[in-house]
């Protein structure tokens, strides 16, 4: 069975007796565009659900951890972080060929472009504020109280992330990139001391991973928790700023060259300042390191996407190759950020 198909009979049989209200018959429609865990809308007589599963094929170690996605969303159910309600986790690969979990479908608005072209300046400002609020809420979660203190190892988050993604990058490498080698070396040499901050980290926080209310700025759910862990919060914050430095195109999904003030969009400085205010921080030193790190990690992630596309295991192979072509640009961007010119 291909990645675009789902054995709904097998899913239904496994769910039977485990989830009240999950009624047959079940039809499945695959969401398009994702490069991570294949995601499907399941329609039943009693309502809609969403199924997330690991992709087929040989996967990098620790990648596509749907069990971690399930656990973190379950833990956040009663916090200030909006998440979809999760129901069941199946770790038996024999059911549909890979682990999967079920959650509620959240009917909300999703925006691909941070320029928010279909909104007016007041609406854009409100969504930026909500995006900022939710990010601070993630980092303000009491990880001990919600049972996530063991969700990531202790120690220097950036050192272990650098080590992890360097290994992942080399495992999926398809060509030699001098800029990527130089960026890895710079990050290793300029690693900041651990400042003691240890929070929940989303790992891929950006506008298109948020669902908003149909008639207002309220965020209803933060999606795609695959890369979440316990780590250092500035990685999420710098990732937002990095994304905005990208071209303001369908592919780039950034804000480069956009007159943000005119459109009601926040500046990098305002986003960082408001975030610090919400977390009780006086400011952030050496932000260039965190920004360079985010470029590096995105380059490593996209290299994995490219490799899966070439191997035929990508959720969307054509899109995977398109995204993989950006690896050299992210490597160059990381070096520019390291020099303070991003």
Task: Explain what this protein looks like in three dimensions.
Helices cover 40% and strands 12% of the residues. The strands form three sheets. Strands 1-2-3-5-4 form a five-stranded antiparallel sheet, covered by helices on one side. The protein has a two-stranded antiparallel sheet with strand order 6-9. It is built from eleven helices and nine strands. With 342 residues, the protein is an alpha+beta fold. It has two domains: 8-12 and 19-104, Phosphorylase Kinase, domain 1; 121-338, Aminoglycoside phosphotransferase (APH), C-terminal lobe (Aminoglycoside 3'-phosphotransferase, Chain: A, domain 2, Alpha-Beta Complex), CATH 3.90.1200. Helix 5 (178-189) runs parallel beside helix 11 and helix 9 (287-311) packs antiparallel against helix 11 (327-338). The mean pLDDT is 92. Strand 2 (39-44) and strand 3 (47-53) form a beta hairpin.
């Amino acid at each position: 069975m291909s990645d675009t198909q789902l054995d709904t009979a097998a899913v239904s049989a496994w769910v039977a007796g485990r989830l009240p209200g999950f009624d047959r018959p079940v039809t499945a429609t695959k969401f398009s565009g994702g490069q991570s865990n294949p995601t499907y809308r399941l329609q039943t007589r009693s309502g809609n659900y969403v199924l997330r599963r690991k992709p087929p094929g040989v996967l990098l170690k620790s990648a596509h951890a749907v069990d971690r996605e399930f656990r973190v969303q379950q833990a956040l159910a009663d916090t200030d972080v909006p998440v979809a309600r999760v129901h069941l986790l199946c770790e038996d690969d024999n059911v549909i060929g890979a682990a999967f979990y079920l959650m509620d479908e959240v009917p909300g608005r999703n925006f691909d472009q941070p320029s928010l072209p279909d909104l007016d300046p007041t609406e854009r400002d409100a969504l930026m504020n909500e995006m900022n609020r939710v990010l601070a809420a993630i980092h303000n979660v009491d990880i001990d109280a919600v049972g996530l203190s063991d969700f990531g190892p202790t120690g220097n988050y950036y050192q272990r992330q650098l080590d992890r993604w360097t290994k992942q990058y080399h495992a999926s490498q398809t060509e030699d990139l001098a800029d990527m080698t130089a960026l890895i070396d710079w990050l290793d040499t300029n690693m900041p001391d651990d400042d003691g901050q240890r929070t929940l980290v989303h790992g891929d926080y950006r506008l298109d991973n948020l669902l908003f209310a149909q008639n207002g700025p309220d965020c209803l759910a933060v999606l795609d928790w695959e890369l979440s862990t316990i780590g250092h919060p500035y990685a999420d914050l710098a990732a937002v700023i990095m994304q905005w430095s990208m071209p303001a195109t369908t592919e780039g999904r950034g804000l480069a060259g956009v007159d943000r003030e005119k459109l009601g969009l926040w500046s990098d400085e305002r986003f960082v300042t408001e975030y610090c205010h919400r977390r009780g921080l006086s400011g952030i030193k050496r932000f260039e390191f965190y920004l360079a790190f985010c470029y590096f990690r995105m380059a490593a992630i996209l290299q994995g996407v490219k490799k899966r596309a070439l191997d035929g295991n990508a959720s969307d192979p054509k899109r995977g190759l398109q995204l993989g072509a950006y690896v050299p640009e992210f490597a160059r961007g990381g070096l520019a950020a390291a020099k303070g010119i991003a």
